[in-house]
From TrEMBL, chain A:
InterPro entries: 2Fe-2S-bd, 2Fe-2S-bd_dom_sf, 2Fe-2S_ferredoxin-like_sf, 2Fe-2S_ferredoxin-type, 2Fe2S_fd_BS, Beta-grasp_dom_sf, Diverse_Oxidoreductases
PROSITE patterns in UniProt: 2FE2S_FER_1 (PS00197)
PANTHER family listed in its UniProt record: OXIDOREDUCTASE WITH IRON-SULFUR SUBUNIT (PTHR44379), XANTHINE DEHYDROGENASE IRON-SULFUR-BINDING SUBUNIT XDHC-RELATED (PTHR44379:SF8)
Native organism: Nonomuraea longispora
Pfam families from the UniProt entry: Fer2, Fer2_2
GO molecular function, one term: metal ion binding
SUPFAM superfamilies, per the entry: 2Fe-2S ferredoxin-like, CO dehydrogenase ISP C-domain like
Name of protein: (2Fe-2S)-binding protein
Keywords: 2Fe-2S, Iron, Iron-sulfur, Metal-binding, Oxidoreductase
[2Fe-2S]-binding domain ranges (all copies): 76-148
2Fe-2S ferredoxin-type domain location: 10-58
From TrEMBL, chain B:
Top-level taxon: Bacteria
Xref: Pfam families: MoCoBD_2
One term of GO molecular function: oxidoreductase activity
Protein name, per record: Xanthine dehydrogenase family protein molybdopterin-binding subunit
Domain Aldehyde oxidase/xanthine dehydrogenase second molybdopterin binding, first and last residues per copy: 3-269
Source organism of the structure: Nonomuraea longispora
Annotated signal sequence range: none
Length: 162, 337
């Protein structure tokens, strides 16, 4: 099977690149498009550090053959920092000290973005469930859960017109 | 059938560093033309935060803001020597080396400032915001950015410093076994509260109370994070991580980390942590190492809490549901009917 040209809408911008058969979404993002925020951890869909949003849903991009999502809208951590400003999730991760070595952080932030998109007022259990597919070996998870709760609070406050 | 609650505690004394055949770490500092002090190290930051600690030690000693310090751990092949990231040694060894290098660089910085301001270097002080000034005459001052520029282009000086911390080799005295293996020891105690399900054998850690004597917490947020992240690893060792419970053959065991059990975010206990400070004489600003010890005390504390909850004394990790149930069965066999 020959390589083919694949088109995606990545962080709002249409991008085209050549993909070998079976090339993963993760490999294409990192190697063809130079978007290296999503990390290659286990490469088996178990650790979650490669998480990106495909049509708004969090997906383990290491398991997604890119041709199966051709034409789709993909959001990566690079697309979260709109206009160079950190968003509520990112700034809450800093303020709540929810990152240590940083290898899981990109995936954690993306699952948080997806959660807050569909549920602006999550319970702690909702947050725990959302990050349950993502492994962190440094923090013990607690600061991450607290940061996402804090981000949700900040985003709700911002949404209230003054 | 019931969920039985128990509480246990354990303490740990943990050495900072080893003496190996002599254990050195080096640091080199130099100022760029714009007054950024580059700290060159071969010490690797894999998330434990040595770059932050090194920057804090350099800024504190130089008397400059953190923003004037850049820590470069680029290349272990060409950089100054470091033995490595192990034995909870980084903050202690590297911190001391950075302080030594920064003290030398500060000396040169004040010498050049003395030339620039035409005063005696002994009369100069730093204000922590980037100015070097004459003590008692604060309008006679120069900013470090201007000073570094002048050092390069006017005075022909290199503002730099060298540092090394060496833990000297120590061999045991044959008759007594006596030796000097470490630099200092940190101390900690963890109390675990667990719930044991006597029907399923599942142990759940509900709460951990951690008290850590760390010498000095150079960065309290990072110290607390290390304590609680490390405790999570302890819970993981105590209750989860094993290649064993696969039946009937070892061949059915996990081949990779996706089949290797670790606690997830839903398995975390709530933690309460206290940091106590008794500065170590040979530590950088009194700090001891607390890297590895944080995973230690939770394990025996959990074992003791299981014993307290249901009377089962487990001595090998992990404390799986199977081992708890076998222990409960053995206790029932002992009891007269």
């Amino acid at each position: 099977m020959p390589s083919q040209i694949v088109s995606l809408v990545v962080n709002g911008e249409r991008r085209e690149f050549i993909a070998a058969p079976g090339a993963t979404l993760l490999a294409c993002l990192r190697e063809s498009l130079g978007l290296i925020a999503a990390k290659r951890g286990c490469a088996q869909g178990a650790c979650g550090t490669c998480t990106v949003l495909v049509e708004g849903r969090p997906e383990a991009s290491c398991l997604v053959p890119v041709e199966t999502v051709a034409g789709a809208s993909v959001r990566t951590l690079e697309g979260v920092t709109a206009g160079g400003e950190l968003d509520e999730v990112q700034s809450a991760f800093i303020d709540c000290f929810a990152t240590q070595c940083g290898f899981c952080t990109s995936g954690m932030i993306m699952v948080a973005e997806a959660l807050l998109e569909r549920n602006p007022d999550p319970s702690e259990d909702d947050v725990i469930e959302a990050v349950s597919g993502n492994v962190c070996r440094c923090t013990g998870y607690r600061p991450i859960v607290i940061a996402i709760m804090e981000a949700a609070r900040r985003r709700r406050e911002r949404a209230v017109p003054r | 059938m019931a969920k039985l609650r128990g509480r246990g505690f354990a303490s740990v004394n943990y050495p900072t560093g080893m003496n190996l055949g002599g254990d050195p770490s080096q640091a080199l500092i130099h100022a760029t033309t714009t007054g950024t002090f580059v700290v060159s190290l071969s010490s690797v930051d894999l998330g434990q935060g040595i770059k932050t600690i090194a920057a804090q030690c350099a800024a504190e000693t130089l008397g400059l803001p953190m923003g004037n310090v850049l820590v470069d751990t680029a290349d272990t092949d060409t950089g100054p020597h470091c033995m490595g990231t192990f034995a909870s040694r980084g903050s202690h060894r590297v911190g001391n080396a950075v302080i030594m290098a920064a003290a030398e660089a500060r000396g040169v910085m004040l010498e050049v400032a003395a030339e620039e301001l035409e005063v005696d270097a002994a009369d100069l002080e730093t204000d922590g915001s980037g100015y070097i000034m004459v003590r008692g005459a604060q309008d006679k001052r120069v900013h470090v950015t201007d000073l570094a520029m002048a050092a390069h282009f006017k005075h022909g000086r290199t503002i730099s410093g060298r540092g090394v911390y060496l833990k000297e080799p120590s061999v045991p005295v044959p008759e007594t076994g006596e030796m000097d293996p470490d630099s200092c020891q940190a101390h900690a105690c963890t109390v675990a509260v667990v719930e044991v399900d006597d029907e399923t054998g599942v142990v759940e850690v509900l709460e951990l109370f951690n008290a850590y004597e760390v010498g000095r917490a150079l960065n309290p947020a990072m110290a607390t994070q290390q304590v609680e992240g490390g405790a999570w690893m302890g819970v993981s060792h105590a209750l989860f991580e094993t290649t064993e419970p696969y039946y009937p053959l070892r061949d059915h065991g996990p081949r990779d980390f996706s089949a290797y059990l670790m606690p997830g975010p839903a398995d975390i206990p709530s933690q309460h942590s206290v940091i106590l400070e008794r500065p170590a004489a040979n530590g950088p600003y009194g700090a001891k190492g607390i890297g590895e010890m944080t995973a230690n005390a939770p394990i025996p504390a959990i074992a003791n809490a299981i014993f307290d909850a249901c009377g089962v004394r487990l001595t090998s990790m992990p404390f799986t549901p199977e081992s708890v149930l076998r222990g409960l069965d053995a206790l029932r066999m002992e009891e007269p009917c």
